[in-house]
Amino acid sequence: MQTDGMMQRPSIHQNMQNMQNMTQDMAEQEQDSRPHSERANRPAPRIMDRSRRIARSRSTKAFRVLGSLAAGLILLMILCLQLGTEYIGLQRMVDLILRALRQGDWGRESIGTTGMILFHVRLPRILLSVIVGASLASVGVVLQALLRNPLADPYVVGVSSGASLGAALAILFGIGTSFLALTALPLCAFAGGLLSLVLVYRLGATQGRLSIHSLLLAGVILNAIFSALIMFSTLLMDPNRSFGLMAWLMGTLTLQVSPGLTVLLVYILVGLALLLTQLRSLNLMTLGEESARACGVDTERVKKRLFVTAALVTGAVVSVSGMIGFVGMVVPHAVRLLFGADHRLLFPASALVGGMALLLADTAARTLLAPTEIPVGIVTALAGGPLFLYLLLWRKDRLA
Amino acid sequence: MAVTPFCDYPPQAATKPKVGYTNPSIEALVGHDPDLVLAPREFMRADLLGTLEQLRVPVLVFSAGSVADITAHAQTLGRIFHRESQADIVATAIRRQIAAIQSKVRAIPPRRVLYVLNSHPLITVGPGSFIHELIGLAGGSNVAADAAMPYPRLSMEAVLKGDPEVLLFPVGKAEGIPPGEQQVWRQWPDLSALRQGRLRSIPSDLLNRPGPRIGEGLEALARAIHPEAFAGEPRP
After folding, report:
1. Is A112 an interface residue toward B (CB < 8 Å)?
2. Is A397 helix (H, G, I), strand (E, B) or coil?
């Protein structure tokens, strides 16, 4: 392990790290070191067979887990599609779809107000919450592995508050109300996220190396500075605008324009695909950078690539949905407890569970006080925070 | 006399010394040695009130949640400053203005109104807010009447169901509806308000500030909702 100060401090993340290593079964470690041992000296055929067999059983397990999670997500989406300001049953949905298909028109004339609500309000929102939830959880997995800290999530590293500051400045200088508002606001948020990423990165890098400890610290401090700047910008704003900004920051999953969804989807899918290619290295990184390097991982390059991609995905997500916390922190935790710490399973499973979690939270936000909506960031914090504390206690009990 | 940086009515107010708004400077405030501090309830923090009490600065806290409150407050101030008859004149004038507007719109069936404080996310006014009451007085029926709070984030589903005939955008002086906001609403061409082209701006200062100009505010609101009732009459 690199001397980044983590070992000396018997803190929460230390305990978490120990736990994680303990729960990682031997088979995985054996398998993970395979590329290295293959390169260095050919292992005995007996071990090869065994690890292949284990690999096969693991992949069927992964297949089963991911399959059932995906099925669960689809069922949940169908369930949530029925709920809202008015209940729309399955029979009704099918009728509406058939009618729209027959008439070749998805406007009010053919499907009526109920159809408009179902296809133009509820469906896009459900898709958006799944996409945003999945991205937040995936980025959470990557950052937790990378920073070897269970508190890491897209919000801790300062990217989200940078993005929010970008949005605040856009509104302060009136871009938010100009003709370009719909494209300019997300762009400004994105630019802010990118700026904070570069800052965190510069501050965290010492002598060409990315020290995870200073990276995390820089993120926390930048978060505090950006939050103060956001507060300051609301002071300078017209009060009518400042509450609009605060409302936006509390998390919004209503989509402004439909092309936005497509652009975001492309963006996030590319980002997630890039992350997917790095899962093997990520597994090795959790064992510590020394071990990862010993296994032939170019740790600095992997770190840079993962960190930049994670930040870009976060920036894109924040720019459309504001600040939605705890999904990126709690979901990877819960999934790790349930299915183990192998990132090849953890990453896609977290994405699916993250999608489900935010979908549930947003459905609660839409329906609990209907027709009034609760900002979804409040729901995720109120549900996710206590859950996280519970997981902490549970782990502590198991360790004792 | 001293005011907040936002005070611009009557025009002389803008030239008075400033003491700050939600975070007023206590030093500046006490420095003016006020006989009385008037403060709206929602902007007066408990710690601030405590400090002022310790410094023996008299404070009168207003909470104007309805039109009746405004006339009552005018008369309270009249008694405090020994200007009872002037206060009565102001209160009567306000009541008369309101009655005149009501008589104009009473015969017309109410139009469904959505008052857009913020388009993304959609924030509007609900029961318990001052503007909700004014919409009713101006011959409108608020689409967010079922909402559980005074300033709700309204679900777009509820908007489609309520199908507002008029969208009202509170804006500053000499400002149109921001194009960004209009663009948000152009996604919903099926709404009656968009089909009939009833996206209207309304001077926010007149409505957001419960005070003596409330009659003017109500008239602006009634003109925006039922322009035909004011046909032939010049704008004030």
Report:
1. no
2. helix
Token duo for residue A169? 């400045």
Q: Contact A371/B160, CB-based, under 8 Å?
A: no
3-state SS record for B80-149: HCCCHHHHHHHHHHHHHHHHHHHHHHCCCCCEEEEECCECCCCECCCCCCHHHHHHHHCCEEECCCCCCC
B163 touches chain A (CB under 8 A): yes
φ/ψ bin of A99: left (φ > 0), alpha (ψ from -120 to 50), beta (otherwise):
alpha
- Are A248 and B121 an interchain contact pair (Cβ–Cβ within 8 Å)? yes
CA atoms within 13 A on the CB side of B100: 12
User: What's the pLDDT tens digit per position in A250-289?
Assistant: 888 876 655 556 666 777 788 889 888 888 888 888 877 7
Residue A315: predicted pLDDT: 77
Contact B155 A181 (CB under 8 A): no
Residue in chain A closest to B175 (alpha carbons) equals A177
Is omega for the bond preceding A375 within 30 degrees of 0, making it cis? no
For the segment B147-166, the average pLDDT, to the nearest whole number, is 91
Kindly write down the DSSP assignment for every residue of A7-46, as one continuous string: TT---HHHHHHHHHHHHS-HHHHHHHTHHHHHHHSPPPHH
